[in-house]
Amino acid sequence: MTRESPAGDAVSGRDLLVVLLLTAVILFLLRMVLSEVPRSPPAVFALLALQSAVPMALLYLLVVRRRGLSWAALGLRPTQARWYTVALLLALASFPLVMIVNAGVQALLGEPLRNPQLEILAPAEFSWGALAVMLLMAGLVVPVVEEIVFRGLLFGWLRTRFGLAAGIALSALAFAFAHGIPVLAPALAVQGILLAWLYARSDSLWPGVVMHGTFNGLMSILLYAAIAAGVPLR
């Protein structure tokens, strides 16, 4: 068994609520802005950077600085090398899992599944520079931030108070619905369960960052390959 996250004991429910609510509100506003501005790569990347900077700033002010917690206490600590292999295998295994879940959602809806993320993130045309920046943001920056918020902070807090199973389930649901795309929530919940389990077993967020980043990076490559091939996405 792994030890409980120190963040679960030190962070108050009020701090957690403030971080999550302010992050959700600001992300909602950023999505509204993104829907109104021309979807050029610079605009998308600037808003992705803001999307990552806001929760990190809140975490630093309310948790790290105010409560005196280190980033290691939030989960950014070393672990055994084998967990990185597990993370890569889970990233690959999550592809068919996500496809199966999305196919089930599509069958229930009785219509093709529409992914608004593609409409937001896809540029009008392919460029290597845009792909490189997207890989940096989606494959590294966003996974680090989301793993700290949803696994290091939220899951750590829930696990301390409600136990491992409830912590995994509730943090996975929060992760799924925080993206604001209901049709993708079941697939995101599956990923949230795997990521929380990986953190609980490895006692480190870094394997989750590897899994999360690998999945996002491969999805970004597939997206840009489709754009380069002229596949219509909208």
Descriptive report:
The chain is an all-alpha fold and 234 residues long. It has one domain. It is built from 9 helices and no strands. Helix 4 (82-109) runs antiparallel to helix 8 (185-202) and helix 4 (82-109) packs across helix 9 (206-228). It is globular. The chain starts with 5 loop residues before the first helix and ends in a 6-residue tail after the last helix. The relative contact order is 0.17. The model has no long low-confidence stretch (mean pLDDT 87).
Strand coverage percent: under 5%
How many alpha or pi helices?
Answer: 9
> Helical percent range?
over 70%
Q: What class would the helix/strand composition place it in?
A: mainly alpha
- The termini sit apart by 46 Å
- The Rg value, from CA coordinates, equals 18 Å
Along the chain, the helix and strand elements come as HHHHHHHHH
Number of extended strands: 0
Task: Describe the sheet with the most strands.
Answer: none
Shape: globular
**Poorly predicted segments:** none
Number of domains: 1
Kindly report the average pLDDT value.
Answer: 87
